[in-house]
Amino acid sequence: MARNKVQFQKGLSEAEFSTRYGTEDLCHAALVGWRWPNGFVCPDCGRTAHCIVQRGTRRLFQCNACRKQTSVRAGTLFASSKLPLTTWFRAMYLITQSKKGIASIELGRRLGVTQTSAWLMKHKLMQVMLERNASARLKGRIEMDDAYIGGERPGRHGRGAAGKTPFVAAVETTDDGKPHRVILRRVDGFRSKALAGLAEKALTPDAKGVSDGLACFRAVVGAGCEHTAIVTGSGRKAARTPAFAWVNTLLGNVKAALVGTYRAVRDKHVPRYLAEFEYRFNRRYDLAAMIPRLAVVAARTAPMPYTLIKLADVYA
User: Fold this and answer.
1) Host H or E run for residue 249
2) Of 208, 211, 209, nearest in space to 238 by CA
3) Of 128, 179, 151, whose CA–CA distance to 304 is shortest?
4) What is the distance between the alpha carbons of residues 40 and 63, in angstroms, rounded to a whole number?
5) What is the rounded distance in angstroms from the CA atom of residue 168 to the CA atom of residue 184?
6) Which top-rank group of organisms is this from (predicted)?
7) In CATH, which superfamily holds the domain spanning 141-286?
8) Do residues 162 and 235 lie in contact, with contact meaning Cβ atoms separated by under 8 Å?
């Protein structure tokens, strides 16, 4: 039996990572190239003529026209961080190359920083992933299912139970029945309005959704999608229904990763953790390219203060 080319791809080894991004100079040069691929452009006046001003360890770009000075970090996700770029780049490496993710306490140990710093870095990068995922749309045949994140609590079980965060999982399959791309989005409940809104944002009008008998999934029709409901019942038999093989596999992997990697996931941060898994899965065809792809978007993302990351209740 032939090996799965995606699963057994070379990826980016730690040695190769160090060769590409092992020093501050290498990281700085890479970030300059990603932020200004056609050469420096002044963020104030748009002119390109400039000179380099060295202030201690800082390298500033000074516009020859308006004399404005700026750094490659200014106005990006990396702005105002005292951590070196080598630490940021290694964080991107550890987060993108790990199939099940990495907890902030382990990330802090690997990077040599506090758990608080590692947590903030990780959530900033996951926010970048979430915002990047928001523009993606699935097409063709799509397996859909409802799911929850959260531990067991006394009282009501199943849908509507306390302490659980509802989210929708959907898998776009290829013509030969293989999984291609996925979406994992938190919803405020399994109601028609929520599913209609999700379909408008995340599915193309010609998509062909397949779901179980949960009534709210019919709402995707309002976004121009087709819908087929297959009543599966509950229990193990339902989980083995061939029509939902890939979405059930996806949910099993997501829940195993969350339970096995993270001690706890707060409801308001759930969209970021789901976005992290979604981002890696949809870009799994080229593991080595994930770092530059994430860094390019981070270089074009406005700074994120701690209060925004810590306190915000985010919806994908």
Assistant:
1) helix 245-261
2) 211
3) 128
4) 9
5) 6
6) Bacteria
7) Ribonuclease H-like superfamily/Ribonuclease H (3.30.420.10)
8) no
